[in-house]
Amino acid sequence: MDRAETGRRGERAAARYYIQQGCTLLEHNYRIREGEVDLILRDPEGVLIMCEVKTRTNPNAVCRPSNSVTKAKQRRLILAASSYLQQTGQSEAFTRFDVAEVTPLDSGRWIVHIIKSAFDASES
C-alpha cells in the first residue's frame, strides 16, 4: 500500500470514528488553492469540526503524527475552513479544529486518537 492510499484509508477510518460518535460528515477533502481540510463534520450539538487526519504506519515512531501539524499547516487549514464557512453561509458557526492520529494495526483495524481543539484559529 502506497503512502497516498494509506492516507485515504486513515481518513476513512477517522470519518467512521466520528460518525460512530454521532457526527455527520459534511465534506471530505475540501480544497482551495491555499489549503485543504481533510474532514468537515457536524457534531450532535451542532459544532462544526475541521479535522486534519495524520496517518502513520509505524506505531512505534518517536514523533507523534500530530507534531507534523505545524503553524504553517494550521494557517492553511484555517484559510480553507474560513472559505468553507463563508461559502456555506456558516461564518458565525462555532468551529473546532481537531487532529486525528490514525495508525493501522496488523489485524487490518485502525487505532484512531482524536485530539479535540488541537489548535485555535486565533493562535495561528
Description of the structure:
The protein is α+β, with helices and mostly antiparallel strands and 124 residues long. The chain has one domain: Trna Endonuclease, Chain: A, domain 1 (3-Layer(aba) Sandwich). The chain has 2 helices and 5 strands. The protein has helices at residues 3-20, 71-87; strands at residues 24-32, 35-42, 48-55, 95-104, 110-119. It has a 5-stranded mixed beta sheet. The longest helix has 18 residues, at 3-20. The radius of gyration is 14 Å and the shape is globular. The termini are far apart. The mean pLDDT is 90.
Shape: globular
* Portion in beta strands: 35-45%
What is the CATH C-level name?
Alpha Beta
| Share in helix | 25-40%
Estimate the mean pLDDT confidence: 90
> Segments where pLDDT lies below 50 for 5+ residues?
none
Supply the number of helical segments: 2
Number of domains: 1
Amino-to-carboxy terminus distance: 34 Å
CATH architecture: 3-Layer(aba) Sandwich
Structural class of the secondary structure composition? Answer: alpha+beta
Task: Give the beta-strand count.
Answer: 5
Give the assembly state of these chains: single chain
Question: What descriptors fit this protein?
Answer:
single chain, 124 residues, alpha+beta, Trna Endonuclease, Chain: A, domain 1, 5 strands
